[in-house]
Amino acid sequence: MFYRRRKLIIVVGFILLFIAALGRIRIERRYELVPAPLILRAIDADTTAAQLAAILDENPSLISDQDESGASLIHHAARVGRPEVVKLLLRRGADPNAMGRGFSASTPLMTAVRSNRRDVVLMLLDGGADPTRSTSIGTPLKFAESEGLDEIAQILSETIERLNAEEAPTSPPSRSP
């Protein structure tokens, strides 16, 4: 009985050492990553709009640059729900209809809708985002409806109706012969 217990303790000890070694390897690999690209550091949750403005002053190309996943600053700001940053980016000339590439092949508006960011959706629409622009998963309205995002779906629907009404040609008054 004593030997079985001792053997069990040794086996459990080796298993624990193995698990600890794996954990250490994972941690070391995590810290071997290269520093985050400037585009991601610029939109970090701790970065204020004023700090971002200073970064953009030094690196104006960041407005349209895309990271390795194909997303631009305005995509990231829309995803994390940073309306003050979205406003700054729009004022600095960011394209509210920019189409990401690869995994991020969507517009900032679709990104905000997917992330359920009502305030960012409103800001992007005010900034000229096209609510009818289709992406690989459809239009923002169809996505909002399919996901049960009723408030966002209503905002998008009303915006589309208003845009359609503005574009509708007004017919001249008919003249009687």
Write the layout of secondary structure elements.
Layout: H1 2-31, H2 38-42, H3 49-58, H4 73-80, H5 83-91, H6 108-114, H7 118-126, H8 140-146, H9 150-167
Description:
The chain has 177 residues and is mainly alpha-helical. The chain has a domain at 38-130: Alpha Horseshoe (Serine Threonine Protein Phosphatase 5, Tetratricopeptide repeat), CATH 1.25.40.20. It has helices spanning 2-31, 38-42, 49-58, 73-80, 83-91, 108-114, 118-126, 140-146, 150-167. α4 packs antiparallel against α5 (83-91) and α5 runs parallel beside α7. The longest helix has 30 residues, at 2-31. Mean pLDDT is 80; it is low at 24-36.
**Element-level helix/strand string:** HHHHHHHHH
Average the pLDDT over all residues and give the rounded result.
80
- At CATH level 3, the topology of one domain is Serine Threonine Protein Phosphatase 5, Tetratricopeptide repeat
Largest sheet: none
Spatial shape: elongated
**Strand percent estimate:** under 5%
Integer-rounded radius of gyration: 25 Å
The chain-level structural class is mainly alpha
Task: Please report the first level of CATH classification, the CATH class of one domain.
Answer: Mainly Alpha
Strand element count: 0
CATH architecture of one domain: Alpha Horseshoe
Q: What is the terminal separation in angstroms? A: 115 Å
